């Protein structure tokens, strides 16, 4: 039986299992999202294994694939071996029962992506390059890279859906504010990750674009502001709640974004840095810190969220204007200054604080008697873990794209100067590596001869 047919059969079987076993819908009271049963051990195992595979193993394998490391395939096989049984455990548990929900439906799309990724990988392993298969192979190479890079984002969304479903949140009247919190919170975390990537390994790409980072930041801010301006209020209806504040926030975003785009170019057309993105973050934090809330606990959490966002914006302005003095880096070897880590981390923290401040979460924490101090410390802990993991993945990428350094003397090997994780005189190699989706072990020797950028590296498979 072909592999794709077998995989499709497994998905269909799992859907049948979900429909006919393990989920007694009679236990759910009409109008409720779930039963009152506790989460049993099988469901906890499902949660932990899925977080391990899609949250840690697959992103690590993705980075190893980008750098064409020979450990890419074994790591992805390990992740698949954990994810597939965990998927079935999610349908076989006997504890808390759930009504129809988005987590169950979205899981099939995530597993379909995994199946497509596996099929691409197996096909590329055959090294069929003659005739029509040569064109198919090019499509498979690009598809394998795109799907692999999308999976961490889709997995993040699915994990959020899982948490929402497990607690029965974001239904009926709570849906709108829930979407706002989780979308904006994830956006802050994503922005922090992008800042970290550009700071540590993305300077060559940025140089190639001929634009400053603030150009892209301001463009995104302007686009997001336009969306907020026309979606935060149902036009033609009465203004209620915080509609005015949300809409005016969207207005200032697109106004400031347009100004930032204009200021991102010098008179001669060269890239120029500016303060606009940092100021937008700062003023957004100020607005959110004064956002009226129904619960005292929610007020405190939103206040700390606003202060964290204000600190992120202020530190970003200081970084660009006073630490870097409009340059991309102040270090000769390209390593980031310690102050540069502050703005991205505060964006991670702000994202988690905002995602953790929905109405239903605040009610649950308040009823449990948990103070805002304890809750905020937990959310900051999550931010540190994601910040750590992101830096670990970027370190893994950087050390595996360095050329082999010859030994200088018996005292130890000479260190190769780096530009944000790369050799300073190999910007063109960095750009080329970033654009290649072909993976080491999926290429035949006669297809692509070993280039200086990979010579003596892939066989050693450096992993730190």
Automatic annotation (TrEMBL):
Residues 155-397 form the Protein YTP1-like C-terminal domain. CDD domains: Cyt_b561_FRRS1_like (cd08760). Residues 451-464 have a biased composition (Polar residues). Keywords: Membrane, Signal, Transmembrane, Transmembrane helix. Residues 410-464 are annotated as: Disordered. Residues 1-19 form the signal peptide. PANTHER family: INTEGRAL MEMBRANE PROTEIN (AFU_ORTHOLOGUE AFUA_6G12730)-RELATED, PROTEIN YTP1. This is Integral membrane protein-like protein.
């Amino acid at each position: 039986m072909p592999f794709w047919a077998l995989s499709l059969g497994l998905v269909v079987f799992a859907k049948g299992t979900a429909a006919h076993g393990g989920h007694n819908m009679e236990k759910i009271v009409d109008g409720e999202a779930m039963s009152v049963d506790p989460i049993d051990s099988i469901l906890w195992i499902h949660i932990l294994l899925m977080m391990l595979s899609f949250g840690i193993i697959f992103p690590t394998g993705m980075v190893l694939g980008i750098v064409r490391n020979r450990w890419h395939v074994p790591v992805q096989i390990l992740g698949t071996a954990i994810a597939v049984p965990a998927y079935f455990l999610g349908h076989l548990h006997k504890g808390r029962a759930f009504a129809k929900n988005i987590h169950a439906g979205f899981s099939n799309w995530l597993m379909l992506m995994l199946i497509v990724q596996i099929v691409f990988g197996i096909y590329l392993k055959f090294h069929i390059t003659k005739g029509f298969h040569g064109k198919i192979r090019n499509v498979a190479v690009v598809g394998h890279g795109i799907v692999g890079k999308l999976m961490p984002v889709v997995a993040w969304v699915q994990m959020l859906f899982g948490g929402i479903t497990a607690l029965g949140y974001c239904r009926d009247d709570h849906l709108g504010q829930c979407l706002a919190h989780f979308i904006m919170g994830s956006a802050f975390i994503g922005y922090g990750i992008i800042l970290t990537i550009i700071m540590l390994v993305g300077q060559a790409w940025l140089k190639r674009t001929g634009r400053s980072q603030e150009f892209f930041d301001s463009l995104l801010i302007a686009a997001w502001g336009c969306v907020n301006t026309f979606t935060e209020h149902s036009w033609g209806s009465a203004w209620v709640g915080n509609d005015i504040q949300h809409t005016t926030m969207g207005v200032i975003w697109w106004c400031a974004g347009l100004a930032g785009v204009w200021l991102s170019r010098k008179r001669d057309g060269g890239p120029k840095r500016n303060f606009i993105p940092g100021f937008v973050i700062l003023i957004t934090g100020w607005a959110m810190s004064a956002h009226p809330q129904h619960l005292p606990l929610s007020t405190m959490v939103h206040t700390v969220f606003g202060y964290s966002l204000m600190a992120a914006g202020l530190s970003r302005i200081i970084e660009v204007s006073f630490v870097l003095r409009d340059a991309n880096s102040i270090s000769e070897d390209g390593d980031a200054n310690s102050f540069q880590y502050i703005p991205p981390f505060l964006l991670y923290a702000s994202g988690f604080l905002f995602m953790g401040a929905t109405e239903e979460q605040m009610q649950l924490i308040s009823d449990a008697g948990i103070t805002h101090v304890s809750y905020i410390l937990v959310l900051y802990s999550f931010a540190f873990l994601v910040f750590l993991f992101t830096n670990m993945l970027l370190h893994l990428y950087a050390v595996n794209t360095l050329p082999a350094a010859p030994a200088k003397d018996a005292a130890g090997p000479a260190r190769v100067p780096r530009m944000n994780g790369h050799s300073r005189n190999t910007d063109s190699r960095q750009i080329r590596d970033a654009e290649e989706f072909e993976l080491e072990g999926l290429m035949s020797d006669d297809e692509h001869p070993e280039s200086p950028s990979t010579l003596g590296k892939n066989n050693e498979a450096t992993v730190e």
